[in-house]
Specification:
- With 322 residues, the protein is an alpha+beta fold.
- The chain folds into 2 domains: 16-61 and 102-209, Cupredoxins -  blue copper proteins (Immunoglobulin-like); 231-316, Immunoglobulin-like.
- It is 39% helix and 20% strand.
- It is built from 8 helices and 12 strands.
- The strands form 3 sheets. A 5-stranded mixed beta sheet has the order 3-2-1-5-8. A 5-stranded mixed beta sheet has the order 4-10-9-6-7.
- A hairpin with a 4-residue loop joins strand 11 (268-269) and strand 12.
- The longest helix is centred in the first third of the chain and has 34 residues, at 68-101.
- The chain starts with a helix and ends in a 6-residue tail after the last helix.
- The protein binds heme C and copper (II) ion.
- Heme C (HEC) binds at residues 117-118, 133-134, 197, 236, 239-241, 243-245, 256-258, 260, 263, 266, 269-271, 284-285, 292, 295-298, 300, 311, 315.
- The site of copper (II) ion has 7 residues, from loops.
């Protein structure tokens, strides 16, 4: 019994994964990979049982020279011909899936750049690039073509509920097509060890109705709604945050860190790891390396009191216009 639990535990774990469940049936590509997986698993079990049964049978039989022709037939067909056809068939099937999921066409294009340890996300909007970060929104039922690359080390882009993973390689572009079939928020992650904060390099893939997606993209394309002389923006610029971060519609145009134009519209903070709220935002700024160890943002432990409050209020106001 213990052994049986041990043997099936990988399947059970797969079922526990929730937002990261690759058996969630949330995407067309995930469904094709799942189909291949079940065929491989059931096929392997059937073949294994057949071989064991044959071995047990052979062990029990008396040696009988008349059986030798049968045995040769069994070895040629069972050991060479059938496996050759089976493995070739599986290879072709796998290659067809691979061709489709790395295809070059889609209804929308999303460029994703793997950074240490967050995601730069660029949509082709009607009026040019729409730059955002750490959250990917997709219209349900449409094929999104991802154009993937990386800044300095190799990452791997993976939304288990929607499909397979794909390497992100500096200086090269890889592609991945995903066709979500269920609305909802699915977990994405980096699946290739990329340094200290690798395990905290996550994102949300939010699948929406097409008209909601269009509204979201239009809101995301708009510059930030910042009042003239906002005291929080002044603190943001004084502290030098704008050297690394951009907020479109303000002076802040730093290219190093995630775009913050609509940071408060994201579901999560810190590349998919914390709930987006004022408390976490304040801690992110003052206890940066307790929140996410080893990242390339300096902590600001001396920011406190009213100054921190104003900065946090300003950041939390960077939402979509109603
Ligand atoms: C030296 C460059 C640098 C400076 C200066 C800097 N940051 Fe960052 N910031 C980063 C990087 C890099 C990340 C991504 C960290 C990660 O998740 O790995 C980040 C992440 C963030 C995030 C999370 C964004 C998201 O999508 O969840 C916020 C919010 C943020 N910074 C605010 C600030 C504020 C406010 C200041 C000034 C007080 C500041 N940053 C100063 C580099 C910087
Ligand atoms: Cu990574």
């Amino acid at each position: 019994m213990r052994n049986a639990v041990f043997l099936i535990s990988p399947l059970l774990l797969g079922g526990c994964a929730g937002r990261h469940n690759w058996l969630a049936g949330a995407g067309a590509e995930a469904a094709r990979i799942e189909q291949l997986f079940w065929v491989l698993l059931i096929g392997a079990v059937v073949i294994w049982c057949t071989i064991i049964a044959a071995a047990v049978y052979a062990n029990r039989r008396q040696v009988d020279p008349k059986l030798e022709r049968q045995a040769r037939w069994f070895i040629i067909w069972g050991g060479a011909v059938i496996p050759t056809f089976l493995v070739s068939g599986l290879l072709i099937w796998g290659m067809v899936i691979l061709r489709d999921i790395t295809s070059d066409s889609g209804d929308i294009t999303v460029r994703v750049d793997g950074e240490r340890w967050w995601w730069r996300v660029i949509y082709d909007g009607p009026d040019g690039d729409v730059v955002t970060a750490n959250e990917i929104r997709l219209p349900v039922g449409q094929t999104a073509l991802f154009r993937l690359t990386a800044d300095d080390v190799i990452h791997s882009f993976w939304v288990p509920a929607l499909g397979g993973k794909m390497d992100m390689i500096p200086g090269r572009e890889t592609t991945l097509a995903l066709t979500p079939q269920k609305t909802g928020s699915w977990g994405g992650l980096c699946a290739e060890f990329c340094g200290g904060a690798h395990a905290l390099m996550r994102f949300d893939a939010v699948v929406m109705e097409p008209e909601d997606f269009d509204a979201w993209l239009a809101a995301e394309a708009a510059p930030a709604q910042v009042a003239e002389g906002d005291p929080g923006l002044a603190i943001f610029l004084e502290e030098g945050c704008g050297a690394c971060h951009s907020i479109r519609g303000t002076q802040a145009a730093g290219p190093v860190g995630p775009d913050l134009t609509h940071v408060a519209a994201r579901e999560r903070l810190g590349a998919g790891i914390y709930a987006m709220n004022a408390d976490n935002m304040a801690r992110w700024i003052t206890e940066t390396h307790e929140m996410k160890p080893g990242i390339d943002m300096p902590p600001y432990p001396d920011l406190d009191g009213a100054r921190l409050d104003r900065l946090v209020t300003f950041l939390m106001s960077l939402d979509h216009a109603e």
